[in-house]
Batch of 2 targets.
Target 1
Amino acid sequence: MRLAMLALLLGASLAASADEGMWTFDNFPAATVEAKYGANIDSAWLDRARRSTIRLSNCTASFVSPEGLILTNHHCVEACLANLSTRDMSLVQTGFVSRGRSDEPRCATQVADVLQSMENVTGKVTQAITGLDGPAANDARKEALTRLEQACEKNTGLKCESVTLYQGGQYFLYRYKRYDDVRLVLAPEADIAAFGGDPDNFQFPRWSLDFSMLRAYEKGKPAKTPDYFPIRFAGPEAGEPMFVSGHPGATERLDTRAELEFQRDLVLPNWLLRYAELRGRYIQFGKGSEAAARIVEEPLNSLENGIKVQRKLLDALRGDSLLAAKSEAEQALRAKMAGDTAFGDPWADITKATTIERSLYLPYLFLEGAGGFNSASFRYARTLVRAAAERGKPNTERLREYTDTALPRLAQRTLATVPVYPELENLTLSFSLERMREWLGPDHPVVRLLLAKDSPDRLAARLIADTKLADPATRRQLWDGGAAAIAASGDPMIRLALAIDEPSRAVRKRYEDEVEAPITTASEKIAAARFKVYGTNVYPDATFTLRLNYGTVAGWNEDGRDIPPFTQLATAFGRATGSEPFRIPDSWLRVRDSLDMQTPFCISTTNDIVGGNSGSPLIDAQGRIVGLLFDGNIHSISGRYGFDVAQNRAIAVHPAIIREALQKVYHADAVLRELGVR
Amino acid sequence: MRLAMLALLLGASLAASADEGMWTFDNFPAATVEAKYGANIDSAWLDRARRSTIRLSNCTASFVSPEGLILTNHHCVEACLANLSTRDMSLVQTGFVSRGRSDEPRCATQVADVLQSMENVTGKVTQAITGLDGPAANDARKEALTRLEQACEKNTGLKCESVTLYQGGQYFLYRYKRYDDVRLVLAPEADIAAFGGDPDNFQFPRWSLDFSMLRAYEKGKPAKTPDYFPIRFAGPEAGEPMFVSGHPGATERLDTRAELEFQRDLVLPNWLLRYAELRGRYIQFGKGSEAAARIVEEPLNSLENGIKVQRKLLDALRGDSLLAAKSEAEQALRAKMAGDTAFGDPWADITKATTIERSLYLPYLFLEGAGGFNSASFRYARTLVRAAAERGKPNTERLREYTDTALPRLAQRTLATVPVYPELENLTLSFSLERMREWLGPDHPVVRLLLAKDSPDRLAARLIADTKLADPATRRQLWDGGAAAIAASGDPMIRLALAIDEPSRAVRKRYEDEVEAPITTASEKIAAARFKVYGTNVYPDATFTLRLNYGTVAGWNEDGRDIPPFTQLATAFGRATGSEPFRIPDSWLRVRDSLDMQTPFCISTTNDIVGGNSGSPLIDAQGRIVGLLFDGNIHSISGRYGFDVAQNRAIAVHPAIIREALQKVYHADAVLRELGVR
């Protein structure tokens, strides 16, 4: 780990030899790849890969047919499956196989974005803040980004989003074609899709059939998608060059030591404590009845994944070596810049800001972050209250998540018909109110306001019983009615969101002025220094925007033991206990004798991936899909802070097991034809 | 914090001026106290305080009448109250006021120990291990302690326990008079005893009436206890010298940096994650019914207290200053010993041992520590299986917790009639099996043995449904029947305990030989060096043995705000919300008009206390009780690692509020007479 971190921190000049890097499509190191792997990645290859790769709201996906068919992970559509379920029936448990195109139900809150072009707007942003400093620069920067997005959308008709790369070293506009009608085609049962469950999550060897299929629609018809990846069902060979095109969510490899210490000391421990408890509440709740188990399954799965990630992140920060390497790298860059008097000490500025951040962290988390109000109804109320207030302002003066660019997606999410279960709402809201009281203390003004004469349980029960926000028609009326409708509303959740809006905005304003503003200014300085000293042959931290990386099919050595890069179906049957999460579904047991037990199941590769890459196509040098990324091994989690070339591995579903499942288990003949099988 | 830590680590020569120290009764710094506070603590004072102070199984207490009446905290008898409760009735909730001596129910697993004398046996232990090293020395040391205890009990008829002081710098035999018949006299309702609950725990100002009364019996009659503390109900003045006689449980102020890092990196984070989840399960379980809420109340309260403690301990270790001070102190002592070639590098020896400990930690925790088998039935099974095996061996060859000295107490605990609730057993056992699978992994041999074809839920449900160990008669039969009865038993919990006994003992043996043995040897070396360099005017770490400390009534300054050292009853009524944990019981509301609202409620003092001191008498220079210790402020938690003279405060119940409660709320006239009131 230490070597890889140093290589990166000291300018990434060694990164290429380590298959490290989440490269933007405008700066892909094609020459390095050619030299190392003999693969020719030209601009046609890149363009086709870009137009075939999809950003979902939470994951990556890709087109696999010219008629909008999308391949992604099961866990990427789990929320959609839950939204299409009821107390009495869970598509998460049963899976879903469409009987034809008229039988593809819509994922009400999903979208599919395809990147069309990127424009470097660094100069325009720099110009907008020239002569400004601190909070004024911070505000001006946001206004400039909003203006640029607005003009772009007007001119192109595409979705335009500004992207901050290299911690402020570059600003870009990314332009997307957006499909907001995304429908479900096929999903296996969770028992096989997430075989091994939480115990096997982030483990390899592995036997999880974590795939699903969606379809993009336009004007009520399957979208025409001439750019797509064909699938090479035979899969890759060990040692073959592999590419992953996708949207890695977030890394912090370029963060300063002070920022990482803030994560280590406050963010991660607090998160883990609160969510370990919520995990316990979910599990116990689910034991109450079969309906309760169905209701809680998807949020519990998501939570358990988060706990494993945060736990390993904290482990990584707790070790001395990562932070020591970070200090060395900072010293080295500081030394190189010693002659530049205008440079100042941006690391000291960030350290000072994180000191303030420590004092703001808990109120920010519980109020502005709504950590004290964990419920779908409150999230609706917060959005409705703020959207009404912000829409009354000029576009550039709004909170950034309520600009004209953001509103259509916000409306889709807020107005979609999805189930809201009061019993689960009660659980999460009473839990979060109680923890807010624990962490802010019973004497905090907001806590006294809400709980001076009430208990968290009683308050939550009353709010959930009386709010009508679970009904989409009520939300539609408040969304359309705007500020007047909000002011007139007697809904208790709306009144709660109004009551805490001022203290929430106040802590956010302090955070933006006293933490975000100085950190952004200092980060831009450090980024400029890094470009100056180390050049531009580097990649930026992940920002849930399109990246390409390269690697190869390979296992690794764990405590002296070689882990081979492929697994086979037979071992899944051997590992089954008959009980969740090691249960093989009946649909598979019924056809067991017809299955080829030697079918490859999962693949380990050296590609540099992170959460958000889930659902990414694993592509060969000819641009064919040879696997479906769904996870990393346990060492990959600390990849958030630095890439460990020896042990960090990506994990993909092998296409052969997908074909085996489609043919013999799910009899998805139409899908197979669409994929060109037989 | 840093100054106090350094003072301590560098030899405690400054400790006296800081009111720091948990002094053994044979080494109390009476001259320092006389000089600072003008209080004359002579040997008669010390002898009376020692004979009036009680060690309960989990707390401190004291005699307050010549007829065995005992004053301690409510939370110290909460387990007894729960044991005397049922699904339908909770003494924790209702409280208890005895109607007379025939109405004092026995706390089935409680004992009251009074220290009679102490003997320094360091020479005898040193002699026993002369010429031995490593595991052989470790075994010989334990055998010597067992032999010494055995001989002492035979010669004196008292309970004899060996005590390791100064991390092996001294070994003592402590001789106790034991009362194993301890009965309940009085306890307030939890709503007032723990007013403020978890949110206010470890906070000050405070309004918790955390007191209760027990009585020691001998041969079925109230014990004669001529040594006791009278109560000065008017309470102390600010600035008056205060003494706390009690049994602080455990501090780690003399531990090495490597040992603290092991706590920081493994023990505390793992504990917090697992128990935060269990907290969530308990809370959700308690919402199921009023009976469930009653059943879970006591374990939940205990757990929440633990979570707050461990959380603040981790915070303390995460800061850089404590560990930096530790390193400096180690360097300083190492430098002083540089000329002594036989000294070696005991810190390096300990670091090496903790490296091994890291690899053994999880299997030790889940198997030998039974962290994978959290249920009363399993604990019974483990004890019965091991007691049968160990009793068949010579006394000195047994595991130390099964020697002849330990057996009577073990039998009392194992055979007592206490409620065992299968629904709670199911919860804790399935939880711990599942977490064992998470942390050891599904492929660990013991996990495969138990869960290869089963789920944690199903296995737990079957074990709890089929075991008969909840029945004391079954346990009695297996205890009396010994090895033959165990071998013949088909009870599934006994079979489970047998099945995992060998792997559990194996990891324990490795731990003892490879971790405990080298650490003990190295710690003894460091202790000897510390005595040599810094002299003997120091106090040892807490070991749940009798200590005396001194201080004064004082508040502190919190973020520029002065916290006064007394609170009054009126504020409790102002703070009440009507809902738990801020609910004032009906018994108080009914007599509200008769109460003196200016009655002092709680007291803050500078005494150096830690968990285990709960229930300690706060004593004035004349040996009268002027308060009942029940907590420390939030800064006191890190007192485990070092005393912060500026902010570390002990918290006591004021005797005036106890009198007010006994007179006006509980009408405990007989108790008041016994206490000499009116």
Note: The longest strand of chain A covers residues 170-179.
Target 2
Amino acid sequence: MTEPEILKVAAGSRTTAVAGAIAGMVREEKQVVLQAVGASAVNQAVKAITIARGYLEQDDIELTFIPSFSEIEIDGQERTALRFHVLPHSPRSELST
Amino acid sequence: MTEPEILKVAAGSRTTAVAGAIAGMVREEKQVVLQAVGASAVNQAVKAITIARGYLEQDDIELTFIPSFSEIEIDGQERTALRFHVLPHSPRSELST
């Protein structure tokens, strides 16, 4: 098991680029954790995961995610980040209950 | 299997109230789908799910969720909503791999 890599998603991140990174890491069986601070960044992170789900359909991999709060420091200030632990599931039928 | 109930989350929704609704529905084994339009609403939805995870820890229920895009009409205009299909898992150990 490798250490999870934390992808920092910003308000200006391109969702398709982040989605491509997620899909690539999932295919390589790496653990993926996204981190976002602020509503716009959180929105980009969720959209990126949604797009990555489409990319991985052909691989028969279903993505779900677990969100958590994380206290981080930015420019000396405490901020609450949202982290998204991406979980690949296969086969899809596991999730249909 | 009941039809999923769609909880509409707005930018001004109280996250703890939405989290309480999610936790209640999951405990009653109802399917939960959240719908959010716009970055602020998406952010509130993700925060509500994260808080609901805390509420359900004592029940030994682990929540994950699947995001999807959904085209909806608001005031005659096409908008893209994000939907979050909440998936309860139990026991927790299933997700620890």
Note: Chain A is about 35% helix and 35% strand.
